[in-house]
Amino acid sequence: MSAHGDAEFRHSAADTAATPRPRPRSFRESIASEGFFEDSGEEPTGTISSSSINLANTILGSGMLSMPNAMAALGLAFGSLVIAFSAMTSGMGLYLLSRCARRTPGRDSSFFNVAKLTYPSAALFFDAAIAVKCFGVSISYLIIFGDLMPEIIKAFGFEAHFLLARGFWITFAIVALAPLAFQ
Asked: Which domain of life is it from (predicted)?
């Protein structure tokens, strides 16, 4: 794209963002009015398999592993209400995030860029909060891995002392997964 074409694209994107739109009357009109199905001009890089793996990772996270304990503590009725409420708030959060992401120019709709549009002075704090959250999630996965692997090794009949040690499996997971985490 030429420099003139690039400037023309930025100008048209700024005009589109500044043009007031009529308020949609329904959820379907809201989605259609945000241009979810319009071509952005950039080639998408995600695939069906990468999207499926990402969704499976999100759905089958440590929350799924701790759900039986939460249900046992809360009971069937209240536990079901808490799960339904969590699902509704999670869905609403994803809907609001997708609406904010549509306002970012181009395909770079990271939390940082959305925060720069809404609260520019607090964008760094949002990134720090996400980093702390991701660190906590990784620690919870390591704890679960360290708790479950010795039990699995016992079930297979191995008696080696180091294979039954929780610390060994946590260290193994860190060493094995660190190169993947830094890619």
From this structure: Eukaryota
Burial pattern 136-175, b for ≥16 Cβ within 10 A else e, equals eeeeebbeebbeebbeebeeeeeeeeebeeeebbbeebee
pTM above 0.70, yes or no: no
Q: What is the DSSP string of 130-167?
A: HHHHHHHHHHHHHHHHHHHHHHHHHHTT---GGGG-HH
Both tokens of residue 10? 């930025």
Q: What is the pLDDT of residues 18-59, one digit of tens each?
A: 555 555 555 556 555 555 445 556 676 778 888 788 777 776
Cα angle 29, 30, 34; round to 5: 110
Helix, coil or strand: residue 21: coil
Compute the distance between CA of residue 22 and CA of residue 3 in angstroms, rounded to an integer: 33
Q: Confirm if 142 and 174 have CB atoms less than 8 A apart.
A: yes
